[in-house]
Design a protein that fits this description.
mainly alpha, 1 helix
Length: 151
Amino acid sequence: DFFISLDLFNDFFSSLDLFNDFFSSLDLFNDFLSSLGLSMTSSAALTSSMTSSSALDSTMTSSAVLASSMTSSSALVSSMTSSAALTSSMTSSAALTFSMTSSAALDSTMTSSAALDSSMTSSAALTSSMTSSAALGSSMTSSVALTSSMT
């Protein structure tokens, strides 16, 4: 009976060991669940990081589009400036053409004035010639009268 009691006592402690192993298994299972929870948290963080990366890519794309738009706007301003400069150049060219036309008209007027001066000079010379001719005629008349008187 004593040995039977020892066997039962040994079985009892074996049962305790099994019970301890069971709780150890529960601890391991709990650790597994904790690890799974951490893994899921890490997965959620990774998903969040990928979403943030996608948002960053979208922001960079928007920034590139904005930079392209600003470049296009700058080119448009430059084109408008060039157009304004071209218009100013054409205006200056028109003013130069008008000035040259006015200068040509002034030259023509001066030429006409010179011709008028020449004509007036010729007219004065003709008047002087006619006066000289009249004086010569008067002198010849006087000479005839003198000859007649001498005769």
